[in-house]
Amino acid sequence: MKELNSLATDSRNLPAGDASASLRPSPGFTAHLTGMSLTDLVRLQSLIEASGVFLVVSGESTGILHFAHGQLFHAETRELRGDAAAIEILAWPEGEFIRSERAAASSATVVSTLETLLSSALGMSRSTSPARSMAATGVRRKGEHGGEAPAHQDASAERTPSPARNLRAAATPGVAAVPAPRRSSKLPEGRTLASALVSPLGDLVEGQGPGAEALATYVAYLARLSEVIGQAMGAGETRALRARYTDSELAIQSHAAGHMFGCLITTDPH
Amino acid sequence: MILTEAIERQPASRQTSSAKHASSQTMSTERSLHSLLDIEGVYGSFILAASGALTARDLPAVFDDHTLAEAGERIVRLWSVLSDNGAPEYTVIDFAEYSLFVRGLSARGDLTAGCLCVVIPPSVNLLALRLASKWVVRSIEQGPGALAASG
């Protein structure tokens, strides 16, 4: 009873903004759950026939899932849309699942059923590190899991000399070789002529536009060739490839479990 | 006797002249490559012949010639595949450790004259690199006098 009184007092003492945020009328309970997989959270939305937009945050990656009456009809990441984005998001091993206030998408981009997407995502995430979980919350917080895995990851990183670090040190003598920031992996803007999500075996998983099948073969070969170049140069795995033509651009990006996504986009020649 | 000496010496002098020319060309190319380091972040660069053989380099010793020779053949093959329906202006491959910027050395961008490869961090200013690499390609095409003439 004393605790309840204290909670009530605390809530009255909240700053105006916080109080309005926490007391914003929302029917039902606000849940803060940890230890659930994203699969569980998404299935739950389907089960209760929920409608709304959910922001999924995993490390530096963010994605959005749009539901209407329990149906996942739109998914989006920085680079992808539709089924490819949904598979990418559903394969993320840990993070946060946050209800968003943004408006629902006006058109549907996801064509596969939730079960199909989940099984594709499961295949992608199998080869990643041990299953971790999502936190479902109404408030975005900084990573709670930050202190667990890194301990042994850092130790292994210490043991394995990084060629890039050596390279940076050699290229910039006298300057501390700090890890280079990653280039934005955003796809170039323009009209997509064709796109293809390719499995590690070179099969077309999902394609859009005419020539998606041919693009898949092309993407698979280029990805393999890049991988061999990376190995020869000690540069590590291939993350992306971009080839700029006069009026178009070919972009290939690596996805989880060896999948590759390629798209051909028309660009402004200037 | 004098004639014999002259005959023996002639090829040597020709060789010296040709070696000097090659050396001057290599130095000029290396100077061109070195200018790419003006772009913040660039680690270094190298040039591959159409066969994939390394012809010039301006890279830290972390990359030995054997590594570049091994990768060279594959890089030109990649460029050749990308050029199936016309050569691209450039291509960038992002690896886990660094990125590789590639552009053809001929005016049309095809492999007849080989290709220029620049080792870069992911944070490099790509627009600046595109412009600088274009200038480097042009100066290499024009030969040893180009750099001196351009100042």
Question: Would you write up a description of this structure?
Answer:
The complex is a heterodimer of chains A (270) and B (151). Chain A is α+β, with helices and mostly antiparallel strands and 270 residues long. Among the domains of chain A are: 108 residues, no CATH class; 76 residues, Beta-Lactamase. Helix content of chain A is 33%, strand content 26%. Chain A is built from 8 helices and 11 strands. In chain A, strands 1-6-5-2-3-4 form a 6-stranded mixed sheet, covered by helices on one side. The longest helix of chain A has 21 residues. Chain A is globular and about 55 Å long. The N terminus of chain A is likely disordered. Chain B has 151 residues and is of the alpha+beta class. Helix content of chain B is 50%, strand content 19%. Chain B has a 5-stranded antiparallel sheet with strand order 2-1-5-4-3, sandwiched between helices. In chain B, helix 1 runs antiparallel to helix 3. Chain B is globular, with a radius of gyration of 18 Å. The N terminus and C terminus of chain B are likely disordered. The chains are: A alpha+beta (270), B alpha+beta (151). Chains A and B meet through helix 7, helix 8 and strand 9 of A and helix 2 and strand 3 of B. Strand 9 of chain A pairs antiparallel with strand 3 of chain B, so a sheet runs across the interface.
Overall pLDDT score of chain A: 72
Q: Give the CATH architecture of chain B.
A: 2-Layer Sandwich
Q: Assembly state here?
A: heterodimer
Q: What's the total count of β strands of chain B?
A: 5
Tell me about the largest β-sheet of chain A: 6 strands, mixed
In CATH, what is the class of chain B? Answer: Alpha Beta
End-to-end Cα distance of chain B, whole Å, is 48 Å
* Average pLDDT of chain B: 81
Stretches of chain B where pLDDT is under 50 for at least 5 consecutive residues are 1-10, 145-151
Q: Give the ordered list of helices and strands of chain A.
A: HHEHEEEHEHEHHEEHEEE
Largest interchain contact: A-B, 37 and 36 residues
